[in-house]
Amino acid sequence: MRRVLVLGVFALGVLVLVGRAIDLQVLKQDFLRGQGDARHLRVVTMPAHRGMITDRNEQPLAISTPVDSVWANPRDLPLADPRLPKLARLLDLDHDEMLRRLAARETREFVYIRRHIAPELAAQVLALELPGVALEREYRRYYPMGEVAAHVVGFTNIDDRGQEGLELAYDEWLAGVPGAKRVIKDRLGRVVETVEALRAPRAGKPLALSIDRRIQYLAYRELKQAVQGGGARSGSIVVMDPRTGEVLAMVNQPAFNPNTRRNLRGDLYRNRGVTDVFEPGSTIKPFTVAAALEAGRYQPSSQIDTGPGYLRVRGHTVRDIRNYGRIDLATLMAKSSNVGASKIALSLEPEELWSLYSRVGFGRITGVGYPGEAAGVMSDFSRWNEVERATLAFGYGLSVTPLQLAQAYSAIAADGMMHEATFLRRDATAPGQRAMQPETARQVRAMLEGVVGTDGTGTRAAVEGYRVAGKTGTVRKSTVGGYVEDRYIALFAGMAPASNPRLVVVVMINEPGREEYYGGHVAAPVFREVMTGALRLLNIPPDDLPALQVAQPASGGAA
Questions:
Q1: Is 315 among the domain residues?
Q2: Based on CB atoms within 10 Å of each CB, which residue in 253, 527, 533, 546 is the most buried?
Q3: Which long-range contacts (CB under 8 A, 24 or more apart) does 313-316 make?
Q4: Total structural domains in the chain?
Q5: How far is CA 47 from the centre of its chain?
Q6: Measured distance CA(69)–CA(122) in Å, rounded
């Protein structure tokens, strides 16, 4: 009897087990599969590659490289695990602070521990096999030229979104669209199988800039040497193609490295070439003369009496450094006569002067599309009094950016046509707007050649083998209480070859630190070096070959 009872109990147990197996494997199969999937099946984001930024010759200026980020699920990660201190050391984190962050987010399933780590470090993290700790593939932005092109290109944040510069301006164009896929993860949060792709990632679109990285580096090197070597506060250089409006180079000092942004300050990453304004000083005189020629009241040979070297205007005195007497417009430009420029402005109707200034872009943004671009300041002519008209003629009472000044000089270089400035490569010449008559532009350009000649203020801007046209400027800086005596801005704006200008370069040095502060002494040599190098890099033929002196070796001399 006992034997039958024991066999009956065993048979009953077998029946229960078989019934339970049928219940789990057949009747509740879908439910259990769903429960398993809920614990191990996940939809994960597939990061999209951000579009590359290149210079005009397809050389990279900003690229995205794949990296790994460490994350954790606090629910699955025991905070007392003895491997956590080693994880903190690997990631260069404070162990206690890491634990506090995880504990504060214990209800979450996803918490970043460290973003964007090197591949070898990611392998060491995986080797720890910590439950709840895993890696996620992301992209990190890298800038091959570092601080050389930083102010133009800008940078992204850790989530690969544009924060400054063209990275911000064209963020929607550059940013890709993330994809999604359904995967199975193991207990450590690692993907062990891809179940299906839900949406393919779409990479961002590439962006080709007008910048020529060779000229960009050349300008950067010369500006850095001038600012740091001369003890200046800051500086900017803009190089532009006057035929298209393309910006070939734009550099600023001080600069920053977008690849290492610890302790980054706003004053370092601000692109002074488009955001900072200054009074242009004598660099505006070519446009004062152009307004006079456009009005039909003056010819290049017209005489102006600048004696006795100063001019009284309603209780204010306009001065030249000496009495030039009666001079023509070319001499006015070469000697940079404030008195002559003021007399011209006072002889014109205010609207005539304002109209020319406005047509070359003063008082409005260039339309380059750069975030934070300044428009400068130019008041309406209806509010000008005689003193304002006189001082505007030699560059006080209005403000411009380096880019605005380069665009204005491009109108002179392009026979009166002004093309909208751009940081994007133009494969075809864009239509421009006429800022002045072709003859006016050519006459002013001829006068600007005299500035660089032996009797002008810009002799140090001369480039061997090329005709150069340009203008110096030395501006006394203003403060709340008025203009200060010992703080200046040194300027030079010019173009070459003057017979058919291919390049316009503007150099601005803010508060030169040494005794020399004139534009002809400080900014003109920088212009010369940048222009010389850029002309050679672009293989632009000389237009002043007779000026070259070729040394001939002496007969029978030693080699």
A1: yes
A2: 527
A3: 313/342, 313/346, 313/386, 313/387, 313/390, 314/385, 314/386, 314/387, 316/387, 316/390
A4: 2
A5: 26
A6: 8
Which structural domain range is residue 270 located in? 213-546
CATH number, domain of 140, equals 3.90.1310.10
Name the 3-class secondary structure at 155.
strand
496-508 tens-digit pLDDT: 999 999 999 999 9
At 87, the amino acid letter reads L
Q: Does 282 map to a domain?
A: yes
Same domain, 173 and 269: no
Task: Dump pLDDT digits (tens) for 508-554.
Answer: 999 998 788 999 999 999 999 999 999 999 999 999 987 454 444 44
C-alpha span between 467 and 447 (Å, rounded)? 12
Around Cβ 511, how many Cβ atoms within 10 Å? 18
Would you say residue 461 lies in a domain? yes
282 is catalytic: yes
Pick from 72, 113, 71: which is nearest to 92 by CA?
A: 113
State whether 174 and 278 are in the same domain.
no
Considering 210, 234, 282, 410, which one is annotated as catalytic? 282
The C-alpha atoms of residue 444 and residue 34 are separated, in whole angstroms, by 81
| 433 and 535 part of one domain | yes
- Tracing tokens 């580096």 back to the chain, one arrives at 217
d(CA 324, CA 333): 12
